């Protein structure tokens, strides 16, 4: 089974959800012209890292973001990874990834587990507690948020539980673009699965972001990579390739988890 992916490498308006809904809508419309099965938005695409104003701009129970994404998915008949949004819950604000099916239904949420101290996340967000595994079009996916990719054991756990494609939504600074590329390629090789990684473009008062959204195949080959600016990046993924690579080197059979 094949799937066409479109990554919306968005330049996010700092702390301005209203403007970001307009930008996201424009990019999704542009992506839909390529007839994708799935469109992916970046991390915190409604607010950016305007953490000091989070009390004011975080979305209560992610309701407004979910309503926008459900409507957009249904109108265009396309599955959406609605990036992640600042989601105000009863316990605090979570950085929550949203998955919406092409019939306009929220099918999965995952809140970032690893909070990135270098960008002050631990002062403003609480970590999630849920699984990253979900199903779309009958295939196994797992969706993570940015810094999560530095924790290979977390991604491995989800690959072991059936993820054939790993989604990553990010606001990854340009300063560490070499880490971004290497970590994503390593996660694809070690888990023998596709990695579909959507970073943001542009800058905010503290960081210039890397862009370089990527799609990597289960052998670790980069099959599509964006530049630094706003862009729609497309690629076709083939789930048969996951089976093929896992058959050549049976890493999942050869694991010895009782020793580690
Ligand atoms: N938004 C993030 O989680 C950034 C992670 C990051 O930059 C890193 O180096 O890790």
From TrEMBL:
Entry keyword rRNA-binding: no
Hydrolase listed as a keyword: yes
SUPFAM superfamilies registered for this protein in UniProt: Carbon-nitrogen hydrolase (SSF56317)
Single GO MF descriptor: hydrolase activity
InterPro entries: C-N_Hydrolase, C-N_Hydrolase_sf
Short name of any one Pfam family annotated for the protein: CN_hydrolase
Keyword line: Hydrolase
Domain CN hydrolase: 3-239
Family that this chain belongs to: Belongs to the carbon-nitrogen hydrolase superfamily. NIT1/NIT2 family.
Name of the protein this chain belongs to: Carbon-nitrogen family hydrolase
Taxonomic lineage of the native organism: Bacteria, Bacillati, Bacillota, Bacilli, Bacillales
């Amino acid at each position: 089974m094949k799937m066409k992916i479109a990554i919306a490498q968005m330049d996010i308006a700092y702390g301005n959800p209203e403007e970001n809904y307009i930008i996201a809508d424009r990019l999704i419309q542009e992506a839909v012209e390529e007839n994708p099965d799935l469109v992916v938005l970046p991390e915190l695409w409604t607010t950016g890292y305007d953490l000091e104003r989070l009390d004011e701009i975080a979305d209560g129970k992610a309701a407004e973001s979910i309503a926008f994404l459900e409507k957009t998915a249904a109108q265009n008949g396309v599955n959406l990874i609605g990036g992640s949004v600042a989601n105000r819950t009863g316990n605090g604000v979570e950085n929550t990834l949203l998955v919406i099916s092409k019939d306009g239904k929220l099918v999965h949420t995952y809140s970032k587990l690893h909070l990135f101290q270098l960008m002050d996340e631990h002062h403003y967000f609480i970590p999630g507690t849920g699984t990253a595994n979900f199903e779309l079009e009958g295939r196994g996916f797992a969706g993570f948020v940015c810094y999560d990719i530095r924790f290979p054991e977390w991604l491995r756990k989800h690959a072991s539980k059936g993820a054939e494609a790993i989604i990553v939504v990010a606001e990854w600074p340009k300063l560490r673009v070499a880490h971004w590329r290497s970590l994503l390629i390593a996660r694809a090789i070690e888990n023998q699965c596709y990695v579909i990684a959507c970073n943001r473009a542009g800058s905010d008062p503290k960081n210039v972001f890397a862009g370089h959204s990527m799609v990597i195949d289960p052998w670790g080959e980069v099959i599509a990579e964006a530049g630094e600016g706003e862009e729609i990046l497309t690629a076709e993924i083939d789930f048969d390739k996951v089976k093929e690579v896992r058959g050549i080197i049976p890493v999942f059979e050869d694991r010895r988890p009782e020793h580690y």
